[in-house]
C-alpha cells in the first residue's frame, strides 16, 4: 500500500501507545534522536516544541502513516484527539488542556510532574512504552496491576518526560534524566484499591459511551467532566474549603491529603498523582447519590455558589442547578409563562424589552436563562456568543446517532412536541436550548430499536 515510501525501520504502535512514545521508538530504530527525525521528516512544522500527543496536523498524521505503513485512523488513535468532544472541547498543544496531564515539552518548560507510568507495566512489556490513558488526569491507578501510578523517577526524583535531543538510545523503562531503571519504582499500597478502581472504571465507561445518567437525566460526557473538574478544583484550592475536605473525610472514612494549599492552582492536571487520587477518592461517594449528598454536605458547611462556581467560564446546567438550589427554593417562570408575557406586551402595545419582561415575570431574564428556560425570540441576537461550539457539537451528535446527515438535518428542522412545536435547530443558538437538544438526542440514542426504527422511517417518509 505504501511501497517505496516506508522508512527502513517502521515498528508499529503498541496497544494504547502514545504517539510521543511511538515517535521516540521510531527514531531510536534508525539510530537518530527524536528531534532529528522530526526535523528531517517535518522541517516546516515545530513538533518537538509542543505537546506532540496533542499535535495532530493533517500533514503530520498523513506523513507518519505513509512512512510506517499504518492506517491513518490507527495513527490518530495514538494521539489525544480521540478525547475531543468527550472529555474536553478542544486540545491545546501549547497550553493547558482540561483533564490532560501537562508535560515538559521543551528545555525551558516549567517543572511539571511529567508522564505518569506503571512500573510493573513497563517491567512486563517486551518493548516498554507509555500508554495514552496515563495522560488523563482522572487515571491515577493501574487497573491491571492495582497500584498507584508513579510520576517521577525513583532515583533522581525528576519527572519523566520525552527528551527529544537524547543521544543515548535507551528504553522507555529507563529514566530520560539519569538513565536508571524506572521499573524499580515501588508505589505505596492503597487500602481502598477496590473503591478507587470502581470509580475510575465508572469514569472510563462515561468516556466510552459519551454520557452518564445523573438524577434521572442523561448528561453529555464533556459537560459531566466540566462539573467534575470544578469540584476537584474547589477541593484543591485554598484554606476556605478545609471544612469541606474534613467533612468528606469523615463521610468516606479516608483522609484527603494534599501536599500544599494550592491557592493559585491553574488546574487539577498540574497536581501530583497522589494528590489527584486523594481528590478523586470522595467523588465516587458523592455521585453515588447525586445531588442529595452534595447538597447535604455543602449546606452543612455553608459552602455556596461563590466558592463552588469560582472561576468557571462556563457552568454546565446539571452542576449549576445543584449549586443554585443549595440555599434557594425560588421557582422560576416556565417557557410558556415567558411566552405569555411576550404576547401580553405585544397585544397591549408595550415594547418587548428586557426591563418590561423582568417586571412582568418578577425575575431577571438572565436568571431565567440560567435555570433552563429559553430566552424569547426577540433576544436571539443578544445571547449567541459562546454557544456556537455547543450547537455544532449537537449537530455532529445528531449525525452520529441517525447515521446520515440528511436525516439528522431533517430531524433538526422538524417542529417537535418535545420543544412545543419548535424546531430543534432554532434552539441551538441558545445555551440551554443546545443542552436540551443534546438531552433529547441522548433519549433517542438509548430508546428501544423499534422506536428508533419507527422514527427513522418517519423521517424518510417526511
In short:
The chain is mainly alpha-helical and 462 residues long.
Task: List its traits.
two-stranded antiparallel ribbon, two-stranded antiparallel sheet, 43% helix, 462 residues, mainly alpha
Describe the structure.
- By secondary structure, the protein is mainly α.
- The protein folds into four domains: 1-189, no CATH class; 193-324, no CATH class; 335-382; 388-461, no CATH class.
- The chain contains 19 helices and four strands.
- It has helices at residues 19-29, 34-41, 58-68, 72-76, 119-124, 193-209, 221-236, 242-252, 273-287, 292-300, 305-308, 317-324, 335-347, 354-361, 365-370, 388-402, 405-412, 431-446, 449-461; strands at residues 141-142, 147-148, 211-214, 217-220.
- The longest helix has 17 residues, at 193-209.
- Mean pLDDT is 79; it is low at 366-388.
Biggest sheet features: 2 strands, antiparallel
Poorly predicted regions:
366-388
Radius of gyration from CA coordinates: 25 Å
**Order of SSEs:** HHHHHEEHEEHHHHHHHHHHHHH
Instruction: Describe the global form.
Output: globular
Kindly report the average pLDDT value. Answer: 79
Strand content: under 5%
- Record field, number of beta strands: 4
Number of domains: 4
Q: Give the strand line-up of the largest sheet.
A: 1-2
What share of the residues lie within helices? 40-55%
Distance between the termini: 44 Å
Number of helices: 19
* Structure classification: mainly alpha
Amino acid at each position: 500500500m505504501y511501497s517505496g515510501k516506508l522508512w527502513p525501520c517502521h515498528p508499529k504502535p503498541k496497544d494504547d501507545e502514545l504517539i510521543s512514545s511511538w515517535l521516540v521508538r521510531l527514531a531510536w530504530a534508525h539510530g537518530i534522536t527524536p528531534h532529528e527525525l522530526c526535523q528531517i521528516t517535518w522541517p516546516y512544522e515545530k513538533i518537538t516544541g509542543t505537546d506532540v500527543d496533542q499535535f495532530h496536523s493533517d500533514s503530520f498524521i498523513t506523513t507518519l502513516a505513509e512512512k510506517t505503513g499504518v492506517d491513518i485512523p490507527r495513527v490518530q488513535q495514538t494521539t489525544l484527539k480521540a478525547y475531543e468532544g468527550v472529555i474536553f472541547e478542544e486540545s491545546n498543544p501549547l497550553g493547558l488542556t482540561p483533564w490532560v496531564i501537562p508535560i515538559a515539552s521543551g528545555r525551558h518548560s516549567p517543572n511539571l510532574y511529567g508522564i505518569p507510568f506503571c512500573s510493573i507495566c513497563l517491567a512486563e512489556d517486551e518493548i516498554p512504552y507509555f500508554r495514552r490513558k496515563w495522560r488523563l488526569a482522572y487515571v491515577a491507578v493501574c487497573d491491571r496491576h492495582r497500584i498507584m501510578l508513579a510520576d517521577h523517577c525513583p532515583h533522581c526524583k525528576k519527572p519523566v518526560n520525552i527528551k527529544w535531543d537524547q543521544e543515548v538510545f535507551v528504553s522507555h523503562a529507563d529514566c530520560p534524566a539519569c538513565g536508571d531503571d524506572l521499573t524499580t519504582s515501588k508505589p505505596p499500597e492503597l487500602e481502598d484499591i477496590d473503591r478507587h478502581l470502581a470509580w475510575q472504571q465508572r469514569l472510563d465507561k462515561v468516556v466510552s459511551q459519551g454520557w452518564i445518567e445523573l438524577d434521572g437525566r442523561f448528561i453529555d460526557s464533556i459537560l459531566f467532566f466540566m462539573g467534575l473538574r470544578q469540584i476537584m478544583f474547589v477541593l484543591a484550592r485554598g484554606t476556605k474549603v478545609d471544612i469541606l475536605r474534613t467533612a468528606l473525610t469523615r463521610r468516606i472514612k479516608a483522609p484527603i491529603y494534599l501536599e500544599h494549599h494550592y491557592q493559585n492552582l491553574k488546574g487539577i492536571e498540574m497536581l501530583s498523582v497522589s494528590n489527584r487520587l486523594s481528590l478523586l477518592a470522595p467523588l465516587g461517594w458523592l455521585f453515588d447519590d447525586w445531588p442529595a449528598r452534595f447538597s447535604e454536605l455543602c449546606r452543612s458547611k455553608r459552602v455556596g455558589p461563590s466558592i463552588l462556581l469560582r472561576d468557571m467560564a462556563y457552568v454546565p446546567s446539571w452542576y449549576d442547578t445543584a449549586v443554585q438550589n443549595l440555599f434557594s427554593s425560588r421557582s422560576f417562570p416556565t417557557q410558556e409563562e415567558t411566552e405569555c408575557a411576550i404576547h401580553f406586551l405585544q397585544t397591549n402595545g408595550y415594547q418587548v424589552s428586557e426591563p418590561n419582561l423582568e417586571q412582568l415575570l418578577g425575575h431577571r431574564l438572565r436568571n431565567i436563562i440560567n435555570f433552563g428556560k429559553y430566552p424569547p425570540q426577540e433576544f436571539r441576537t443578544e445571547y449567541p456568543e459562546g454557544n456556537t461550539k455547543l450547537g455544532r457539537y449537537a449537530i455532529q451528535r445528531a449525525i452520529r446517532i441517525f447515521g446520515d446527515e440528511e436525516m439528522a438535518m431533517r430531524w433538526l428542522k422538524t417542529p417537535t412536541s418535545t420543544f412545543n412545536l419548535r424546531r430543534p435547530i432554532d434552539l441551538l443558538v441558545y445555551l440551554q436550548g443546545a443542552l436540551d437538544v443534546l438531552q433529547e438526542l441522548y433519549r433517542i440514542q438509548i430508546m428501544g430499536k423499534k422506536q428508533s426504527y419507527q422514527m427513522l422511517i418517519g423521517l424518510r417518509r417526511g
